[in-house]
Amino acid sequence: MLGIPRNAVVALAALLGATTALPIAGGALAIFTPLAAQTAARRPIAPSDVYNLRSVSDPQVSPDGKWVAYTVGAVDSAKDRNFSHVWMASWDGAHTIQATSSNASESSPRWSPDGRFLSFLSSRGGADDDQLWLMNRLGGEAEMVSHV
After folding, report:
1. DSSP code string of 71-89
2. Measured at the alpha carbon of residue 87, what is the angle toward residues 85 and 92, in degrees to the nearest 5?
3. 101: enclosing H helix or E strand
4. Domain coordinates of the chain in residue numbers?
5. What is the pTM of this model?
6. At residue 14, what are phi and psi to the nearest 5 degrees?
7. Rg (CA), the chain
8. Are 94 and 100 in contact, with CB atoms under 8 Å apart?
9. What is the mean pLDDT of each run of 10 residues along the chain (148 residues)?
């Protein structure tokens, strides 16, 4: 299953309130919730509903196995663009943290070998192209570490 332990996928799906998570192309997950968990009010799907969809992708288990870093993508209808941010969830699902929230998208989270830092790609800070950023896993502002 994408090289990710099954219990990591199940934990991520549980955090999102889903009961089924299926791997799909590109390392993303298709998340399904049971019909009973959905609201009772029924209506046809509208084109604007696409703006409420979120995609979860690129899950990365920390070296100590206690955290999963991943990206959550969405559409900003006002700016007519897609964006994604890095999130972290504890393995047991007790804690969920949005690690990034800049005006630019962030992608490709990766753990440092000791698990203290999380790196990601972003064009934040006025960069023309995606650069490598590094942040302390416990919080704080990310630092740009590449200038390509």
Report:
1. EEEEEETTTTEEEEEEEEE
2. 160
3. none
4. 6-107
5. 0.70
6. -65, -40
7. 16
8. no
9. 54 57 54 55 86 92 96 88 93 92 92 96 85 92 89
